[in-house]
Amino acid sequence: MSIQDLGSIGELVGAIAVVATLVYLAVQVRFLKSELHMATMKDQTEAFANVTNAVATSPALAAALEKAKCNDPMEGWEERMAHSFFLTWMNAFELLHNQAQARALAIPDLSINTVLSTFLRSEPWVLGYWAENKNYWPPSLQQLVDQEIERLASDIGGRTQA
């Protein structure tokens, strides 16, 4: 066997090693992407669960939110609790929005709008908080929430005129 034959065999072995490495890396990237997706879903679930759990475990918060929903007068601490709830919920929603924008979650825009719409319909008192505090959030989120508020207003206006 000549030196050229050995060189050819070495090139073949090297090419096979490169292909095997690329296949291994592709499998690892797919696995890591799946792991990242699962971690993102876990973070998102925890964020909304924490908000829900706060209401479920705090009678004072639940009472403050009920007063806010009914537009009943609130004491200062109740206003702060309602305001804190609103900020916490909006932070959880911002996390969902950012992850969807970065395509870390495979959530269609329709689902994000549904989450927001459900919250706005069930907690109409937050509209005042949003108007006062929307500048704390990025413009893309402001635009999304403002559009959803306008859509809800036109839906409600359309139903009252019919």
Describe the structure.
- α1 packs across α2.
- The protein is built from six helices and no strands.
- With 162 residues, it is mainly α.
Low-pLDDT parts are none
| Total count of strands | 0
- Overall pLDDT level: 82
What is the tally of helical segments?
Answer: 6
**First-to-last CA distance:** 92 Å
Shape descriptor reads elongated
Q: What percent of the residues sit in helical stretches (DSSP H or I)?
A: over 70%
Biggest pleated-sheet summary: none
Estimate the strand proportion.
under 5%
Q: Decide which structural class fits the backbone.
A: mainly alpha
SSE topology string: HHHHHH
Radius of gyration from the CA trace?
A: 26 Å
Short characterization:
With 162 residues, the chain is mainly α.
Features:
elongated, 162 residues, mainly alpha, 85% helix
Secondary structure layout plus pairing:
Layout: H1 3-57, H2 59-69, H3 76-101, H4 109-122, H5 126-133, H6 139-161
